[in-house]
Amino acid sequence: MAVNTKFQPITIDLNEFKLHIALKDRNEITLHFNSPSRKFYLAGITGVRSLRAVAQTAFLKNLQRHLQR
I want to staple 33 with a disulfide (CB 3.0 to 4.6 A). Which of 37, 38, 51, 64 is the partner? Predict the structure, then answer.
């Protein structure tokens, strides 16, 4: 199993419905999404973040193809 060692300032834990935010001074804020409406908001945040990652990956692949021409 590969271990991701890249620093992630925002970590989303969908198993426990928590959002962990690492601050610059090494403190961490944990937000608990413990009600049904808050769980829905966390799912929305996760979806948007995933879409942004996919869009960025697609953009980079298209840029690489363009530069290879």
Answer: 38
